[in-house]
Amino acid sequence: xxxxxxxxxxxxxxxxxxxxxxxxxxxxxxxxxxxxxxxxxxxxxxxxxxxxxxxxxxxxxxxxxxxxxxxxxxxxxxxxxxxxxxxxxxxxxxxxxxxxxxxxxxxxxxxxxxxxxxxxxxxxxxxxxxxxxxxxxxxxxxxxxxxxxxxxxxxxxxxxxxxxxxxxxxxxxxxxxxxxxxxxxxxxxxxxxxxxxxxxxxxxxxxxxxxxxxxxxxxxxxxxxxxxxxxxxxxxxxxxxxxxxxxxxxxxxxxxxxxxxxxxxxxxxxxxxxxxxxxxxxxxxxxxx
Length: 289
Description:
Blueprint: H1 2-10, E1 24-25, H2 32-46, H3 48-71, H4 76-90, H5 92-102, H6 109-113, H7 120-148, H8 159-163, H9 169-190, H10 193-200, H11 204-217, H12 219-238, H13 245-263, E2 264-265, H14 273-288
Antiparallel strand pairs: 1-2
Helix pairs in contact: 1-14, 2-3, 2-13, 3-4, 3-13, 4-7, 4-9, 5-10, 5-13, 7-9, 10-11, 11-12, 12-13
């Protein structure tokens, strides 16, 4: 009885739509992402096997990207965009593990595998929006390559050497501008949207708008967060067979949960969760009397 009440008290007290108070976007210090990474590392230490399991999809993405970049470099940006699309969804199990640890609940690996099922509609809509952006990004990549790449496409010599030659500086600049614009948009829409859907079961549009609000109100922190993501991923792929992504992927996944929890505040959760449960039991006892 006591254990049941304790576990119930740790569950989020989610109000009805009429009772729910509006969310608040926190103003974060520029160094906040460093704290998210620290908390993410603690989550990995608490759930090493679960984290390793969810790290495998990130490693597979790196292997696919390497193959695309080597054999079909003109499709590299499209492949990158697809990986950015899949990343938040591959991390759903990591969000669930971090959420349960935050609430003091026992780890549930099997539950993390299916945590997305209750949010399938919202996650599907978010995936659709990001998929459209991925397709547009891929098409823009091909157009930029066709318009600005002034030498023969590097099919039998070093790709980076060809791209960074003096004849292709315009290509590098155009590719960076177009790719950066799409990357910023995808980052802004997804930085906290997937964890928010898992936590609150909001619709995809509300989650995406909230994500953009977080980025808009915390430009310095989010710029550092994006730079840290790029840096950690860049370092990890330099290791043999890009095995570093098997660790960096889960680290960023866990940290993304803490980024959401640090950025978005739901006033109703300020109330003691145990009080919500006791109040509910008291009302039922009163009715029984």
